[in-house]
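Figure caption, in words: inputs first, then the predicted bound structure.
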Amino acid sequence: MSIREIRERLAASALRPQRRLGQHFLHDRNLARWIVDAALQELPGPWRVWEIGPGLGILTELLLEKGAEVRAIEIDRGLAAILRERFGAEARFALHQGDVLQAEWPDPAGEWILIGNLPYSISGPFLASLFRRRAPFRRIVVTLQREVAERLVAAPRQSAFGSLSVMGQSLYRIVIRKRLPPSVFYPAPKVESAVVRLEPLGEPGIPGEEREGFCAFVRESFQQRRKSLGRRWNRKEPRRPEELSVSEWVEIWQELRG
Ligand code: SAM
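Bound structure (S-adenosylmethionine present):
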């Protein structure tokens, strides 16, 4: 989809990109193809994909071409109408118009691949709710603001290491697959982006029913970064939150809950 096509499609429905909703549309079709391949490759079909913020449908179209079932959620009514017109006749496509932060999630998550060029404004809360969930998705491939991607993959003692790193890495193996310059989107955002892939760990240390508690514990601990964990949780631990590895976080959680 060229920039011209994006402009024309929006104009035909009297729409303009809404910065408030993080509407930056991918216009590089090769890159879109690469993202879809990164989401599906090496996983045997049938593919069930939950797409967040399909926008004008650049990824949706390619996913449907590949034979995937796509359940999409788009907050913008005008874009939802365009998507229904484009893909509504396709039996493998279902669209929910609404806010992903309020939406019902596909279940069981393990059967679903999650994909999306996420709106920057919601990526923090969305990822946190993703990591609190009992069960991981089959795979996740999302485009994020570069700084958020770096927080996801950060190691202990790196400045980007924080609660998001611990919550995410305790459930998923996370890699940055590609960095994207602002110019691949229309309109170009002010920040750089990165495509991140998350795959479930073989043996997560936190049982599903304890994930909410574990994530709350990690967040609370990082909110008072300066305090050692010993002072915070009344145990023999002189280190600060950012000095512990993810497996040490899991161990501490296991000890604390006895
Ligand atoms: N996937 C399209 C692409 O790559 O060109 C659009 C990506 S754009 C960065 C983000 C999309 O998410 C927009 O279509 C926007 O309307 C939608 N969106 C923003 N906030 C949302 C929310 N809370 N729930 C669902 N969709 C949202």
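The mean pLDDT is 94.
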